[in-house]
Design brief:
two-stranded antiparallel ribbon; 6% strand
Length: 277
């Protein structure tokens, strides 16, 4: 939580500073000598703070933690490279500027692909097709990032040996597929969540359960949900959650060992057993 909060406040501060400097640059253009460099620097700081924030969110969820730390490191290195390029490039030769730009582009592509892949890995998706959509989107994004890096470092050879129009079309196709998959994946996740929420329960919403207060030992009946002991007023929260398959299918009275909705095998701990008479 602390890591995510740090990147979040960094991003908010950068955007606020960029907006303030932009207003000052427009109203008092002679007051700041390097207004363009300052504005661009603060904007870059906000962008790479956002990428690092995305990686931090995924890392805090204990998903592909090592890869997310690589993404955070790539974001920081990218920011430093671009800041050096903005403020010091006038003193460099063309070759040095080109190499620095190639390095900055490589780390930027790496940070972007890792952040996007981490966010796509977060939603709980049910079903073979939905998970394949996620895998395909991540794969296309990684391929697009790899192609961009290759273009940065071997662009001259590519221009000399491959039709530029063909390269641009290929990158365009990968970008479109990556964007579509990135947009569709959370939509599928939302639709599946709505479906899970609308699947009927075998128990009524408001049920009373016999409980014994752990403090005053009073026997009583309480409604499921938040409540309190009728004697000592101890707050008691009762949660009743029926076993479901990962796809949301109700497992009560299920006769087989596989979910009829998605076909997955139901864990033995979630299988229904008839109550002995």
């Amino acid at each position: 939580m602390r890591l995510r909060t740090t990147f979040l406040w960094s991003m908010i501060g950068s955007l606020s500073l960029a907006a303030l400097l932009g207003i000052v640059a427009l109203l008092l253009p002679d007051l700041i000598g390097k207004d363009e460099e300052i504005l661009l620097s603060t904007l870059l700081f906000a962008i790479y703070s956002l990428l690092a924030l995305c990686c931090a969110i995924v890392a805090e969820k204990r998903r592909i933690v090592m890869l997310m730390w690589i993404g955070i490191g790539s974001s920081v290195i990218s920011l430093l490279i671009w800041l050096v390029l903005i403020w010091l490039e006038s003193n460099w030769s063309f070759r040095v500027r080109e190499n620095v730009t190639q390095a900055g582009g490589t780390f930027s592509a790496t940070a972007t692909v890792i952040a996007l892949s981490g966010l796509l890995a977060l939603p709980r998706l049910d079903g073979f097709s939905a998970n394949n959509l996620r895998r395909a989107t991540i794969g296309v994004s990684v391929l697009l990032g790899a192609c961009i890096v290759i273009m940065l470092w071997w662009h001259q050879w590519i221009y000399d040996n491959v039709k530029l129009d063909l390269v641009e079309r290929g990158l365009g196709v990968l970008a479109i597929l990556s964007a579509c998959g990135t947009l569709v994946t959370p939509i599928v996740w939302k639709v599946q969540g709505i479906r899970r929420a609308t699947v009927g329960e075998s128990l009524p919403m408001h049920i009373r359960i016999e409980v014994v207060c752990p403090r005053c030992k009073t026997h009583q009946q309480l409604l499921a949900g938040p409540g309190k002991c009728e004697n000592c007023k101890l707050r008691i929260k009762i949660i009743v959650e029926e076993p479901r398959c990962a796809c949301g299918y109700q497992l009560y009275h299920l006769k087989s060992n596989n979910c009829p909705e998605c076909g997955k095998e139901v864990p033995e701990s979630d299988r229904w057993a008839a109550i002995p008479v």
